[in-house]
Design the sequence.
């Protein structure tokens, strides 16, 4: 990848966002899910699933930040972050189509995920080195 301050900023911001949401939800799953009107209290299975996914978000977030700091990782982290955001947005969009409209917070999350995924994809295309 070509060196770019814009790409570094993207990786740091997306990494911080993923790390914050992943870490907070990993350790406070009931509280974090309640902000989106999702009640998982009392369901060990739901909490297990939420914590597992949250650990993934935290790991990708940390990896994204590392990609901003270690140039050799920027190629991989840009692909992974973009793919994660586009997958989350796509999954939420599919759910809207199949299941109906969720809470406003989840609609906003869908939009943000698509925006970050599209920006990451654009930056990847712009700054990758053709060999």
Sequence:
């Amino acid at each position: 990848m070509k060196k770019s301050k814009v790409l570094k900023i993207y990786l740091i911001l997306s990494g911080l966002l993923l790390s914050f949401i992943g870490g907070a939800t990993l350790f406070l799953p009931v509280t974090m899910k309640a902000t989106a009107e999702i009640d998982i209290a009392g369901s060990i299975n739901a909490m297990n699933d939420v914590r597992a996914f949250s650990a993934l978000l935290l790991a990708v977030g940390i990896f994204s930040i590392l990609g901003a700091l270690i140039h050799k990782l920027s190629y991989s982290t840009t692909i992974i972050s973009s793919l994660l955001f586009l997958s989350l947005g796509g999954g939420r969009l599919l759910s809207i189509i199949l299941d109906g409209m969720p809470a406003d917070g989840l609609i906003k999350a869908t939009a943000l995920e698509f925006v970050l995924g599209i920006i990451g994809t654009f930056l990847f295309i712009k700054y990758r080195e053709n060999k």
Remarks:
- Residues 5-126 form one domain.
- The two ends are 11 Å apart (CA to CA).
- The longest helix spans residues 44-69.
